[in-house]
Amino acid sequence: MLYTHIFSAFVVLVENLYVITTSFKNKKLLKRWVIAQFIILIFISPWLYVIIQSRTPEVYQGAQKVSLISLAYTFLEVNLGAGRSVFRNKALIAIVFIFLSIIGLLPPWDKKRELFLLILYLFVPILLLLFLSLGKSFFSARYISIFIPGYLILLSRGIRRFKYYSLILLLLIGILGVYFLSLNYYYSNLANLNRPWREAVRYIHENVASEKVFIFAPYMWRPFEYYNRGKINYETLSISQLESKLFNLSQGEKFWVIIANEGVEDPEGKPLRFLESKFILLREVKYYRIVIKQCKVPES
Fold it and tell me: Where do the domains of the chain lie?
């Protein structure tokens, strides 16, 4: 596990916190536990040396700037999956999940030690990641997936607190229905595969002079940069940044927008409609699942 991903160190940390706080009087167990930790340390030491020497790839790929918006987005991603865009009233669904989770934390606690381990397992890694991300962000929704089983157990505990089986059944059907719709939308719109990025980046290199380049969706900068190799500068765009970033351009200024995966991020087509209604289209090139537009800010 530790060789697979560095964030799994939080699991080891949680296990140690649990053993120390629940078995600190059991000298025999603690002695065996400490020996086990030293054995783990010996076997992981080659990888620790590599990490300390900073020779690892970027282990926090997809790191998000921590904010209330990014945390809310992560919560939706955990509960609704990659097909979350199919749901129009995401806030209402999120409130239901939050409500069930809070109920899952409330007493009575019939298995206190198990619940204590669950709380450590779920909250310690995430809170530590948030704290460590106050400087350079290490928080990433995809990499907290190893702690999601703890959240699902908490959610299940909340569902079980209801006395009427008909209501429990209704909640289960509703949640499974949400997951089904999300998965169905995702597998029906696999728009994040097989794009001809090599050709698209070559076109950008051949045609962009000093104009600004924007990429939507934000995480699409990675396949772009693989072929770009730092040759031209660019910025990423999210739905919430469309107006703030593009309206800051000067009158008459030309710019480029590379649009990919908008079907998943925004199936309603807001980026395309926004560009068409607010700016002058100079040229457009379409590749498979990639659209490149050169636009111009209108002059008053």
Answer: 60-188, 197-296
